[in-house]
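B., you asked whether I could sanity-check this one before it goes into the benchmark set. Here's the sequence:
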Amino acid sequence: MGEGRARVVAGSLALADVAVRGSMASRLSRIGKLDGRLAGLLVAIGRAAAAVICLFAWPAAAYRPFDGTDAAVAALNEIEVELEPVGWLRAGSQSSLVTPGVVFNYGFAERWEMVLQTEMLTPLTPGGPASVVATGAFLKWVVLPGVLQGQSGPSIATEFGPLLPGINADPGVGFSWAGIVSQRWDWGTAHFNVEANLTRDQHGEAFLDVILEGPSTWKVRPVLETFYDKVWTQAESRSVLIGAIWQVEHDLALDAAFRYALVNGRAVNEIRAGLTFAFKEEGDTVPMKPGATFGNWGLSR
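And here's what the prediction gave me:
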């Protein structure tokens, strides 16, 4: 999360991409059959990045379509890709396209996940050069397995690491640490995030976030998120997001949302629509657990 999200994502709401189920769903549900060389390349990249991250500290990353996250990780040897092909962001008089936003997750060890993320902003009004923002590489660890891991009680996780510089935006390097608690009831699931950051321009930041979801047994469930974010001497943000998640298959989900925020009293609006798909590392014959792949999507999350 961090300063990139406080600025860029301060006004997003998720709405679900229902029209895509046809050909897109059938193609992505077979993603586990990707060419072996491509899957091997992705795994090699993931392992190399995980090894590098272990030498440093890294920041918290969201899962679709939220700014916060849940207390769960990708299973061992699973690759999960969160993709926003196109989104829309308006802050004051400036409108921009998010084309695209990508998060790559790799379960490299039991209860551990490596995350790489970035997104590109293309100004519409007024025009200008595109910028790469919200870039980071993170580690996430499930400290205490719980309901999201098929056990009883709350799930507790932590996510940490450096905030990386962007292109034409977000110069410098920062640091982020987050604590996450998730709990599930018959009526739905709740996730609580507390995050402390040192922004890329060396300011302190605090982020408090609550996510509420409808029953995990629903094929399409409503979602709500609200957060408060403060960057000392720079910005103060309050945000509300409403949307939906459609669990098409156990390894494919579509999401859509809309968000409204106030950043230093200025209105920010954002529309998000995207998908998340997952597949196993080549050579791993252990079947994927239904619903276990996506952050907080399905019975084990």
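One thing to flag: The longest helix spans residues 36-53. Otherwise nothing jumped out at me.
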